[in-house]
Specification:
Keywords: DNA-binding. It contains 14 helices and ten strands. By secondary structure, the protein is α+β, with helices and mostly antiparallel strands. It folds into three domains: 4-77, Winged helix-like DNA-binding domain superfamily/Winged helix DNA-binding domain (Arc Repressor Mutant, subunit A, Orthogonal Bundle); 125-263, Endonuclease, Chain A; 269-325, Arc Repressor Mutant, subunit A (Orthogonal Bundle), CATH 1.10.10.10. It has an eight-stranded mixed sheet with strand order 3-9-8-7-4-5-6-10, sandwiched between helices. The chain has a two-stranded antiparallel sheet with strand order 1-2. The radius of gyration is 24 Å and the shape is globular.
């Protein structure tokens, strides 16, 4: 079941303030009530004042007034579905526009000459699309740290056996895998996502996932030769600066995405929590923890903040005391 916190996170992405959301829940129980009666019950100074307060909700389709002047308040699930559908349509239109521009820009923008002293090879290579899964499996086996993925369409097909084995082994060893899916995957492939969750993968959803992407922060990244879904080949990137940039991009999308509580089986989170607590108990600084776990400094600080919220602590010392009391360390 989706929590109120998850709903708030989703609504905030569409520009809805906590005050406006609170008003939605106040009028939700007055579905079908006349505006005059609702205004009086909610302590508004007449219908005009109530209509002004409801304007943001009306604009986003969360509240309507029928011809008889009665409130119509659809369930929150319907509101979110409508907003996500609109967002998907806007994203698809933007993707079409970018692709149109991509076909014309090379012909109208002159290429600037590059001097021999300016051209430096980057660490990476092009590989066939058919080798992507085995390449990711090998990278997982050879590396440490988080495994980050954008999967806009791969959930339609079974996971390659080599990649499945490598990912399962990594998760069992205590590593964390975080993956973003489009929201439509919840309806079109619920069993596939449930199976990934049972493996220990952490899952969040977005209205639209713009491209395929696979990143192991600090060391590896696999990107399409052209951003999107269908590609003829992929680029294996090892240049540290580019890998870090791609990891930060996934982190940004992750922070904006909506959790799916029914797919959070807590296995991956509990393993990650134990590793983090052991580092904190040893007195390691955030920078050292990031190097040890193979994640970014931003990720470490986000995890520490989440841990303190879970423990109800105001400081790291209090978090350590509470974690010990609960038997987490």
């Amino acid at each position: 079941m989706v929590t109120r916190r998850a709903v708030q996170a989703a609504l905030s992405e569409f520009g809805l303030t906590l005050e406006t959301e609170d008003l939605y829940w106040r009028v939700h129980g007055r579905h079908g009530q006349a505006l005059e009666d609702a205004a009086a019950a909610l302590d508004y100074d007449g219908v005009a004042e109530l209509q002004a307060a409801l304007a943001p909700l009306v604009a986003m389709g969360a509240v309507a007034v029928d011809a008889a002047g009665r409130l119509q308040v659809p369930p929150m699930a319907h509101v979110l579905s409508h907003l996500l559908d609109d967002e998907v349509q806007r994203m698809e239109a933007a993707v079409r526009r970018v692709r149109e521009l991509a076909t014309t820009v090379p012909h109208v923008v002159p290429r600037l000459p590059v001097g021999p002293d300016e051209a430096e090879p980057l660490a990476g290579r092009r590989i066939p699309e058919g080798e992507a899964a085995t390449t990711m499996a090998r990278w997982i086996e050879e590396s440490e740290g988080d495994i980050l993925s954008l999967r806009p369409d791969q959930w339609r097909q079974p996971t390659h056996p080599a990649l499945q084995r490598a990912l399962t082994t990594a998760l069992r060893s205590g590593r964390t895998a975080r993956t973003l899916y489009p929201v439509r995957a919840l309806e079109q492939a619920p069993e596939a996502l449930a199976e990934r969750a049972r493996m220990g993968e952490e899952i969040r959803v977005l209205a639209h996932v713009p491209t395929r992407l696979f990143v192991i922060p600090l060391t590896h990244a696999l990107v399409p030769d052209m951003p999107g879904y269908e590609t003829a080949g992929v680029l294996a990137v090892h240049e540290r600066a580019l890998v870090l940039l791609l990891a930060q991009y996934v982190e940004l999308l992750w922070d904006r995405a909506v959790p799916v509580p029914e797919l959070d089986l807590r296995g991956a989170r509990e393993r990650s929590r134990r590793l983090l607590l052991s580092e904190l108990a040893a007195g390691a600084a955030d920078e050292q923890i990031a190097r040890t776990l193979g994640v970014s400094l931003r990720t470490v600080r986000r995890r520490v903040a989440d841990l303190m919220i879970d423990l109800g602590a105001d400081s790291r010392f209090q978090a350590g005391v509470e974690a010990a009391r609960r038997g987490w360390i």
